[in-house]
Specification:
The protein contains ten helices and twelve strands. The chain has 303 residues and is an alpha/beta fold. The protein has a single domain, classed as HUPs (Rossmann fold, 3-Layer(aba) Sandwich). Bound molecules: glutamic acid (GLU).
Length: 303
Amino acid sequence: MDSSQTAGRAGRYAPSPTGDLHIGNLRTALLAWLFARSTSRRFLMRMEDLDDRVQPESADRQLTDLESLGLDWDGEVIYQSDRRDRYNAVVEELASAGYTFECYCSRREIHAAASAPHAAPGAYPGTCRDLTASQREEKLRSGRSPAVRLRSRVAEYTVDDALHGQFTGVVDDFVLRRGDGTPAYNLAVVVDDSASGIDQVVRGDDLLTSAPRQSYLASLLGLPIPHYAHVPLVLGPHRKRLAKRDGAITMSELHMSPHALVGLLGRSLNLTDRDRATPADLLESFSLERLQRHPWVFHPRKR
Ligand code: GLU
């Protein structure tokens, strides 16, 4: 990473290149840019391309769309796929401090155990946490390659969020590295945010429940906890999370000029009443107090 990515305070946008950005992603990117620029932070761009759903050329298309909206960022784009060694080194660091264990469970087994009565909803039930040596050998013989999980010493953790206030959420023994060797999202985010000096995390509020896990992990690694702002999502016409199947929601499908689209997003955020705007225009009126805090219901086909 060059020094422009590591010096001083920074915000970021960190899309997964699994397809074209939709209007909800674009709105979150605009907000992340506004939060960073309005607080004199650098703004970094990171491609979370570790996922097996990554589509070739999607990263470039996403970057082109963000640029054409008028968003700019500092330094080179960071690609998580270039940083596997770093994630593995952190897993080793946690392992030698006794903070990991190997897990042989399949998704189905976890789901079955996690839906048992008394299990914390959505939390890993602890199946492999305390395997004996012979149990582990038996699992190994099954041929399954183990995931590495965090041996969490807390059940929950509290974070401070600019829009949600204090939020306490579950911290289970979450996955750090999947069985196929892929570093897990929660690990990569924490490692990368701190490596690039990111102290402001603005993202969709569907990720609010990940923040306690990430913050706890950062605390274990002795890393600073960023300021969080989990922003409302864009909902489709049925008030469900906007999805590709709602149609006509990516930049190329919207057939709007960048200024008209930024104007529309700005109005949805209560930052302007103009039809056309640039991110720089919205920056002038941007404030946390003014920001629309409810999800925005978008009707693609009526446009
Ligand atoms: N890559 C994630 C997404 O596209 C965002 C991760 C984050 O901002 O921490 O939903």
